[in-house]
């Protein structure tokens, strides 16, 4: 996201408007912005934490949106709306479904 700091309120309002549209359309699941960081914590399979400084070579995510849509075309359409609101390109990733995650315990 590259815009003047004084535009932050306008960008936030535009992003919230797209979120409300997605909620009203029944496709919104969850999303939010992420705080910027000077360091990244990486936790390995043994639970050991390694802290690394953020460098210009790291690609950081400024926020995310999880939508439940019927087609790739629909996710591209929503991603374009989010990109316009946030004034930056969006990465599209598909989340794998895990049937066990939907099974009550």
Q: Keyphrases for this structure?
A:
105 residues; two-stranded antiparallel ribbon; alpha+beta; flat; two-stranded antiparallel sheet; 20% strand; Alpha-Beta Plaits; 2 helices
- C-alpha termini separation: 41 Å
Total count of helical runs of at least 4 residues:
2
What is the molecular shape?
Answer: flat
Number of domains: 1
Largest sheet: 2 strands, antiparallel
Broad CATH class: Alpha Beta
Question: How would you summarize what this structure contains?
Answer:
With 105 residues, the protein is α+β, with helices and mostly antiparallel strands. Helix content is 30%, strand content 20%.
Fold topology:
Elements: H1 8-24, E1 28-33, E2 39-43, E3 49-53, E4 63-67, H2 72-86
Antiparallel strand pairs: 1-4, 2-3
Helix pairs in contact: 1-2
Structural write-up:
The chain is of the alpha+beta class. The chain has a single domain (5-94), classed as 2-Layer Sandwich (Alpha-Beta Plaits). Helix content is 30%, strand content 20%. The chain is built from 2 helices and 4 strands, in the order αββββα. It has helices spanning 8-24, 72-86, and strands at residues 28-33, 39-43, 49-53, 63-67. It has a two-stranded antiparallel ribbon. Strands 2-3 form a two-stranded antiparallel ribbon. The model has no long low-confidence stretch (mean pLDDT 89).
